[in-house]
Amino acid sequence: MMRSDDTPITLDLFADETPTTPGLTEQIGEQAFVLRGFALPWLERLLPALEAVLLAAPFRQMVTPGGFTMSVALSSCGALGWTTDRSGYRYTAHDPQTGQPWPDMPTVFRELAQAAAQQAHFEHFEPDACLINRYVPGARMSLHQDKNERCLSAPIVSMSLGLPAVFLFGGFERSDKSLRVPLFHGDIVIWGGVDRLRYHGVLPLKQGQHPKLGVQRINLTFRTAG
Ligand code: MD3
Ligand code: FE
Prior knowledge:
Elements: E1 25-29, E2 32-35, H1 43-56, E3 60-63, E4 69-77, E5 81-85, E6 88-92, H2 107-119, E7 129-135, E8 141-144, E9 156-162, E10 165-169, E11 179-183, E12 188-191, E13 200-202, E14 217-223
Antiparallel strand pairs: 1-2, 2-12, 3-4, 4-7, 5-6, 7-14, 8-13, 9-12, 9-14, 10-11, 10-13
Bound molecules: N-(carboxycarbonyl)-S-(naphthalen-2-ylmethyl)-L-cysteine and fe (iii) ion.
């Protein structure tokens, strides 16, 4: 098949591996946005700060209240960190693995989260928790709502690093149909207001090798939890 200007049209079998245009904003809900490549100019500062956080609070696989070990490994920084064990999901001021306070949220993390929130017209975002998720090939996150945060009027900002993933943007009931949104290295997603309690998840990560992060996807989510 050809376009009228004689350029060939090919079926893109690898659509979720094709990076999109940095700088584009895609609206996926009334108050939900994807900022393509927004984090890219910050990564030279962000990645060393992330490494330092992970030295103090290494990734660990947690157990859900139902007794399942999550395929995604987690860590946190900031005043509050998210944890789960047999007794439930909650935010804590200390890392249960070390008994120490979670590492401080690096300034570059907070600045980037605030710049992204402002870009999506959420003013005065003051995150006190940054969850760090690590996906290796096969790891996934099933549909859930984020509702452990005390301040549901604040948005959540998420940053994707490393291998691409397909993000599921659902409705307000688990059974609602979800939109599939491919997310790439450097993309930021922000959702708040009427979209804050949407179900969402991540499809199993595909095999791959990212030039900067290797065989993994890391996602940072910034929340006002306390
Ligand atoms: C939710 N993380 O940590 S964030 C989580 O990529 C979590 O690791 C996923 O869900 C991850 O709780 C997804 C991206 C995201 C984007 C848009 C949303 C979550 C959303 C819209 C509505 C609700
Ligand atoms: Fe979530």
